[in-house]
Amino acid sequence: MRKMNFNKGFLPCAILSCVIIVFGIVGLFVRGINLGLDFKPGLIEEVRVANPVADITYDGSARITVELSAGQMDLVISGVGATNETRSFNFAEFSTVDALAAEVNKVPGVKVNVKDGSYVSTKLFLNSIATTQLTNEPLYLYPAGTSKITTDDLRDALNDKGINIKQLGSGEDASYQIRMGVEAADGQSTLQDTVNTKLYSAFGKENVAIVKTDFIGSSMSQSIATKSIIMFVCVLLLIWLYATIRFHWDFALGSVVALLHDTLIMFTFISWTQIEFSTTVLAAVLTIIGYSINATVVILDRIRYNLKMMSDAKNFNDILNQSLADTMLRSVLTTVTTLFAVVSLYVFTTGNIKDFALCLIVGLISGMYSSIFISSGFISSCRRNWKPEFGVHHSAKSASKAAKNIAKDEE
């Protein structure tokens, strides 16, 4: 087998990587990182689109509010000239909308207009942004498990690339989480009104129910970013500690240098392509760290083995070249087979998963490259003045053992 001198590529590869990383640093200042909604202030709104099965109105002087749970409906009655009380309607007793409406209509001034009386009352929900105080304006009761829309329908209705839509649940029982970034807290209500107006226009105001609304402030988004950085640093420290205990200090630093290299390469890619940096992309970065260290450890383990067996090596690069040749086929096959699955994800998916797969593709290639050239090149520079650790004694012992084996075979 022809001897492969991997060490001749260490310096050119190091220069190439430095150029790419500098290019990435320039990109951070010129283009920045396209932060996703997980890392900047934003509005989160959960919506359902369904035809209401009933609506409630009230024509009277008292104050009546509606409270709805999975087990019952409560009407809280108060105000001047009214008896302060709470009337409860248990769904075990009034199991359908017809039965519930017949009982609620006994409350003076309250009128329930039924559109689908056969629906099960335990699966009703309200629009959270609508006031629950009954007036002459209809308060709609919505049925779960009857939605006919999809995420594509919502994207078409909103027609805004800056809005992220995520399906919660499955089938007709699904609701949809809409995430929107805002620059300041005072822009929250304006943005929410704009989004809701588009939804009302597309599906009809009476058919859109806002289940829940939350606002992520700047302090919370900064906290998420800070925790992500701390998590990344802790991962690197633990990997360095593991490699130091198992191998040697220069092996450990070489593996950490390779991991930092892969991370910087991925951020260079993310910066210049402007892929949205979300928690999904962060997961891809951490996945590549785990994959890269696994590939690096295999090579380091082979180097440690050859340090003991190749006692006749004249310099450390001979051991490195042999170790890399021994593991080359495994490194390539592992990367290629993993790429088959990741490329399939990239081709057949959309949204965040597509970005996740694309980052993995870049990271897998970078991880194989850094394990072979960057990590090994760093270790080679640390052991430039290396001398055989086992010397003549180990050689004589190996030769004596070989001679005994030959003599045994001849007998």
What are the main properties of this structure?
411 residues, disordered C terminus, 54% helix, 4-stranded antiparallel beta sheet
Written overview of the protein:
Helix content is 54%, strand content 16%. The protein has ten helices and eleven strands. 29% of the residues are buried. The C terminus is likely disordered.
Strands, helices and their partners?
Elements: H1 10-30, E1 42-49, E2 54-58, E3 63-68, E4 72-78, E5 85-90, H2 97-104, E6 110-114, E7 124-125, E8 139-143, H3 151-158, E9 163-168, E10 175-181, H4 188-203, E11 208-216, H5 218-246, H6 249-273, H7 279-309, H8 316-348, H9 351-382, H10 391-410
Antiparallel strand pairs: 1-10, 1-11, 2-6, 2-8, 3-4, 4-5, 7-8, 9-10
Helix pairs in contact: 1-6, 1-9, 5-6, 5-7, 6-7, 6-9, 7-8, 7-9, 8-9
